[in-house]
Amino acid sequence: EIKDRFPGVLPDQMSGLFGVLGDGYQRPFELATVRLLNMGNILTRWEDLTPKDKNLILQRGGAIILDADGEVLYRHDDKGILGYADVDEIVEVATASSS
After folding, report:
1. Which residue has better confidence, 59 or 39?
2. Which of 12, 22, 72, 92 is deepest in the core (most CB within 10 A)?
3. What are 48-73's pLDDT values in tens digits?
4. Residue 90 contacts by C-beta under 8 Å, 6 or more apart in sequence?
């Protein structure tokens, strides 16, 4: 049950809502609720959790490949939400650098 897996996350009156469709897996509404509560927890501690240099928050993700000397062989900076590096490019660079 969710209250056992995430103690203290949900108010007691909500814990029974998720067992209606069965148990042993995480249902979408359950997952969304836990994520929303986690987001609320993060936002209330935003200043403690974020870096002093707020410009660092703008980088969402990316990929980088370095050689043995620390030189950058490949770099991809995500331009926004759900941006992905080209996996074929990563594999090509990584396998070429390992030979």
Report:
1. 39
2. 92
3. 988 888 877 766 778 999 999 999 99
4. 63, 65, 74, 76
Residue pair 80/60 in contact by the 8 Å Cβ criterion: yes
Give which of 32, 92, 22 is closest to 63, Cα–Cα. 92
Q: Which residue has the tokens 């069965």?
A: 22
CB half-sphere exposure, 72, CA atoms < 13 A: 6
DSSP E strand stretches across 1-99? 62-66, 72-77
- Which residues, 6+ apart, have CB-to-CB distance to 21 below 8 Å? 27
22's tokens: 């069965």
Q: How far is CA 30 from the centre of its chain?
A: 18
Tokens read off for 47: 């200043």
| CA of residue 65 relative to chain centroid, distance | 20
Calculate Rg over the CA atoms of the chain. 21
